[in-house]
Amino acid sequence: MNIELSGHYTYRRIVKSVLPSIAMVLITSVYSIVDGFFIANFAGKSGFAAINLMWPALMIMGSLGLMVGSGGGALVAKVKGEGYTEKANRIFTMLVRFTGQLGLVLAVLFALFTPAIARWLGADEGMMHECVVYSRICMIGLPGFVLQMAFQSFYMAAERPQLGTVMSVVSGVVNIVLDALLVWLLGWGVAGAAIATAVAQLVGGLFPVVYFSTRRLNRGSLKMLRHTRVIWPYIGKACSNGLSEYVGNIAMNIVSICYNLQLMRHLGEDGVAAYGVVMYIAFVYAAVFIGYNIAITPVIGFHYGARNLGEQRSLFRKSLAVIGLTGVAMTILSELFSSGLAQLFVGYDASLTALTTKAIRIYMLCFLICGWSMFVSALFTAMQNGVVSAVAAFARSLVFELAAVWVLPALFGIDGIWWSVNVAEALTLILCAFLVWRYAPQLLDRRRA
């Protein structure tokens, strides 16, 4: 069943439209979580720390696909809203091919420099071998991962978000089954986890290429053309427009690297392991907001292209309400089940479980407000204002949180590390409110439309 971008969006229609994308991103986030679960329980704390140390660097590269997809999806939706379907197909085809080629180049470069990267991330000699093995095997699947991240936005622009959900389920199941087989039954450790992840990423990234290229299969409103020339201004527009999503994601992973460096300094492997569990929960929670934004950005972009200001204003206000209620619900859940979640991953070590439980309870308070800031960044992407969108994303993660994670521990010790994200999100929310007031006043006041 297709979901159309046009028409009025009630609360019910918004929820119905965003659920497939949310499910898609949630399942995609399973990769590192499933790997972490099997490694933590069947390969030991050292391997668990190793994959948590390397995963942010892998996500920084994979997020380039999110950048192209988010900016490109909004651009394609805008062009469709203007009535140029064939032009939208040409842009779509060009962006998919560019993304796949980018993934190949990144995979080769990362594989060559993996030991140096692992050392820079803080790996000691005891972790180095497992860091290198995990990362180099994952590089086999990186082109598929980059494409998979890009298609998360293109599915909605094609009005086929359910297909994205189905593919995420399939690739997620592949990952889980292979992890159970290779890590648990065969005892291949981090190598087995990496193979499972790489295969799942290739499945999730290559199938949509086949689907959108095959007219007998494709029932969506976007199609990959056999022949289209490269028009670099469109690629530049897509990348600049989606820069905020990349900046937000890369900043989050840079911050994760800094958290790991701080925790290795203060707590060693225990600190990195505890933070790994916190990040797994944060990945799931953030996936809800990311999935919402992936789905709603093309919708807002379509109505922006159609110059339907009334619907843009309606989507803005309803999104604030939906995101706010979701944030409250997620925070309550994390506070209630923090101990059980810690037990699931590190229950074999009582002191590590206590440390992880405390970290979860402090860190997860940020989800009361962070969803609004993430939405504001996506809002400006949809409105083709990549600069303001990037400012919101850049300030949120890279400026405020990076500063907090280095300053607060000096003042408050280990607890300062866990509180850093909350301070950063409060400052970001103030900035985002100003950005909307300054650059999108028509969404706030009917008289200024």
Supply the key terms.
449 residues, mainly alpha, 16 helices
Molecular structure report:
- The chain is an all-alpha fold and 449 residues long.
- The protein contains 16 helices and no strands.
- Helix 2 (30-42) packs antiparallel against helix 8 (189-213).
- The longest helix has 38 residues, at 309-346.
- The two termini are 35 Å apart.
- The mean pLDDT is 85.
From the spread of the alpha carbons, the general shape counts as: globular
**What is the mean predicted local confidence, pLDDT?**
85
Low-confidence runs of at least 5 consecutive residues: none
**What is the number of beta strands?**
0
Q: Give the termini distance in whole angstroms.
A: 35 Å
**Global Rg:** 21 Å
Taken as a percent bin, the fraction of beta residues is under 5%
Structural class: mainly alpha
Number of helices: 16
| Series of secondary-structure elements, N-terminal to C-terminal | HHHHHHHHHHHHHHHH
Helix content: over 70%
Q: Main sheet, how many strands, which sense, barrel?
A: none
SSE layout and pairing:
Layout: H1 11-28, H2 30-42, H3 45-81, H4 85-112, H5 114-120, H6 125-157, H7 161-185, H8 189-213, H9 232-241, H10 243-266, H11 269-305, H12 309-346, H13 350-363, H14 370-382, H15 386-412, H16 414-439
Please give a quick description of this structure.
The protein is mainly alpha-helical. Helices cover 84% and strands 0% of the residues.
